[in-house]
Known about the structure:
Number of strands: 5
Shape: globular
Oligomer: single chain
CATH architecture of the largest domain: Orthogonal Bundle
Radius of gyration: 23 Å
Bound molecules: flavin-adenine dinucleotide
Number of helices: 21
Strand order of the largest sheet: 3-2-1-4-5
CATH class of the largest domain: Mainly Alpha
Structural class: alpha/beta
CATH superfamily of the largest domain: DNA Cyclobutane Dipyrimidine Photolyase, subunit A, domain 3
Order of helices and strands: EHEHEHEHEHHHHHHHHHHHHHHHHH
CATH topology of the largest domain: DNA Cyclobutane Dipyrimidine Photolyase, subunit A, domain 3
Distance between the termini: 61 Å
Helix content: 40-55%
Amino acid sequence: xxALVWFRDDLRIADNPALHAALANSAKHGGRVIAVYILETxxxxxxxxxxxxxxxxxxxxxxxxxxxxVPLTVVSGSAKSLIPELVSVAACGAVYxxxxxxxxxxxxRVLRQHLENSGVxxxxxxxxxxxxxxxxxxxxxxxxxxxxAFWRSVSALPPPxxxxxxxxxxxxxxxxxxxxxxxxxxxEDIADSDVNQARLSREIAALGLLPEGVSWTAGLAxxxxxxxxxxxxxxxxxxxxxxxxxxxxxxxxxISATSELxxxxxxxxxxxxxxxxxxxxxxxVARSTAEKTGIAxxxxxxxxxxxxxxxxxxxxxxxxxPLDSRFYNxxxxxxxxxxxxxxxxxxxxxxxxxxxxxELWETGFMHNRVRMVTASFLTKHMLCDWRVGEAWxxxxxxxxxxxxxxxxxxxxxxxxxxxxxYFRIFNPxxxxxxxxxxxEYVKLxxxxxxxxxxxxLDLPASRMRAxxxxxxxx
Length: 474
Ligand SMILES: Cc1cc2nc3c(=O)[nH]c(=O)nc-3n(C[C@H](O)[C@H](O)[C@H](O)COP(=O)(O)OP(=O)(O)OC[C@H]3O[C@@H](n4cnc5c(N)ncnc54)[C@H](O)[C@@H]3O)c2cc1C
């Protein structure tokens, strides 16, 4: 019996419960395992930086799966029709996937029903979270809205174990039992690993994830190495660094004190359980309290990721609807083209904002402290709807995440869960003095331009305007 593993945001081999179960069962029943990734055309389209990451990550995944004797095929379209089609042409008796928690969860439920009705066994697993969102709730049975209580509740549970992949098949499947993938590939011998990799490269190229011509992706390639191997390496070199100063230094954008694991976690190249267990193991042998404190703080950041996903599960329209309904009436200003462009390009005349926006454009990433400052500047000083900023980040971040991005935009804008109070408006100048006192971060991304750019707004006046707008909906 052939088993199909449907990869979604879990582009890894290690601690991948769906892949693990498919391989374990195939070893038991003597069947074969094939894999698919679908670039879905009926969900929110990926941003440009995310597409770049996905392209490279799929190439890495294909190679890793080939070493296990699992051929990966990549297609674009609607999963609703493609999965049943694949199941039928490859004569699959079982489908395996790791669960999703955003809007696609409903489509997954419908698809599962459809497959089961036609006699296909569907097996789903928790792969990208520490705890299922329905597993924890407040004493009143409601979803948590306060991070501290949420994280205490998650931390009280025993740490979820990771799963190891069974030993790879000693023989790759023979061509006699090769699956017949969609028409254009049927002539290929999928059992030949070189041919298989060449086919996969063509399929990935056909998705059109990379922008055409000379482009800004050089900056992404200079900073990032997508893929599972790089994710594991990044985790271990970060932990080897000791985390002693993490708690304080994580706020200083000029210091490389954070893990930079967010794009790897976003694409599921590493699981949160792997990160958690590696941290707990490190904490158990840590020699100083400072290191233990650093690890605990780092884990609570992983907790914010978890909190964002649980919040999305309970609020599927997180990217479009404010969680605080008063914000439907917030008198945001229609974004004025020149001002918005100045923000996007890092030409506002406020050095820390400009440095952050330039870092984002150059590298597909921005330091967390600066994300908060740039987002506050847009939604409060510029009085621009948070969804405009969310969309820009969605297009430009390599870690653009369906949960964390809207969750954090709502948090900064004041309409999210456990949000910063609206009246706390980050002053970009004092934030710069406090968190980039020597101006190293600003210098790195703006050079001398920071002092020369004319300011697009008056800070005190725009602050007062934002407060007045908030008063009007209170
Ligand atoms: C406006 C705004 C938009 C954001 N958009 C995203 C996004 O699209 N994707 C994304 O992964 N993060 C987002 N964040 C959260 C945070 O900025 C990044 O996760 C963090 O900067 C990644 O760097 P790191 O991996 O070095 O973090 P570390 O400090 O090493 O933290 C470890 C991990 O914890 C998680 N994490 C840390 N902070 C947060 C947080 N506030 N919310 C959710 N998870 C967190 C990330 O997975 C991160 O990799 C956003 C924050 C803001 C203010």
